Amino acid sequence: MTIESSDGRVRPLAAASWLRPIEGDEHILARCDGPTLDVGSGPGRLTVALTRMGVPVLGIDISPLAVSLTRRAGGLALHRSVFDPLPSTGRWSTALLADGNIGIGGDPKALLRRLRELVRPGGTVIAELSPPGSPSGVERLRLRRDERTGDWFAWATVSVDDIRSLARPCGFTAVECRREAGRWFASLS
Q1: Is residue 47 a contact partner of residue 24, using CB atoms and an 8 Å limit?
Q2: Is 152 exposed, middle or buried (0-12, 13-18, 19+ CB in 10 A)?
Q3: How far apart are CA 64 and CA 152, in angstroms?
Q4: What values do phi and psi take at 85, rounded to 5?
Q5: Domains present along the chain, CATH in parentheses
Q6: Residuewise pLDDT in 10s, the chain (189 residues)
Q7: CA 28, CA 126: separation in Å to the nearest integer?
Q8: For residues 33 and 93, is the Cβ–Cβ distance under 8 A?
Q9: pTM (predicted TM-score)
Q10: 41 and 70 in contact (C-beta within 8 Å)?
Q11: 32 Cβ contact list (under 8 Å, min separation 6)
Q12: Would you tell me how many other CB atoms lie within 10 Å of the CB of residue 13?
């Protein structure tokens, strides 16, 4: 499977890598000390890992296949968009945006405002970002498998350089960025 940009660029979609732990995941997992919402959980590698650690966790994804894979692996998951009504609104300790999922919906400010509603006061959003010096922006993408293509959708990319200016207007006053195993993360609280 590939991902195609509206400007004609095509790159492989490494979805199979989401099935097993990725170096740096331990950094994310170690910061989840209470009820955690895994947004765009995919096949559930983080949801299942947190479940095994005894952390209450719910994965949400718009892909029925991803939700099914999470459940089969032992995780709790719902087939939902982050913008749909969700259980425990305002009571999550942590919300995860791993694997660049800050791009969901193509509007990082709208996504961060929604997550601010979902996490409890003092709660944290952990977002995986593009490295410093990378451009932030929105592009139109679609998935392609052989000759079949999906619908176009908006996807945002957010650089470490830009997260503070996005997070503060959304209600996050503390932003901590760090590099772990070649990946960049921000903790917003």
Answers
A1: no
A2: middle
A3: 18
A4: -60, 135
A5: 25-188 (3.40.50.150)
A6: 899 999 999 998 877 777 788 999 999 999 999 999 999 999 999 999 999 999 999 999 999 999 999 999 999 999 999 999 999 999 999 999 999 999 999 999 999 999 999 999 999 999 999 999 999 999 999 998 888 999 999 999 999 999 999 999 999 999 999 999 999 999 999
A7: 7
A8: yes
A9: 0.95
A10: yes
A11: 50, 55, 57, 93, 94, 96, 126
A12: 16
Question: How far apart, in whole angstroms, are the C-alpha atoms of residue 106 and residue 12?
Answer: 20
Q: Which residues are 149's β-sheet partners?
A: 144
CA atoms of 69 and 72, how far apart (whole Å)? 5
| Integer Cα distance of 149 and 81 in angstroms | 21
Contacts of 54 (CB under 8 A, 6+ apart): none
Q: Which residues pair with 96 in a beta bridge?
A: 38, 126
Neighbour count for residue 181 (Cβ, 10 Å): 11
Largest CA distance in the chain: 47
Separation CA 96–CA 125 (nearest Å): 6
What single letter denotes the amino acid at residue 104? I
Upper half-sphere CA count for residue 40 (Cβ side, 13 Å): 18
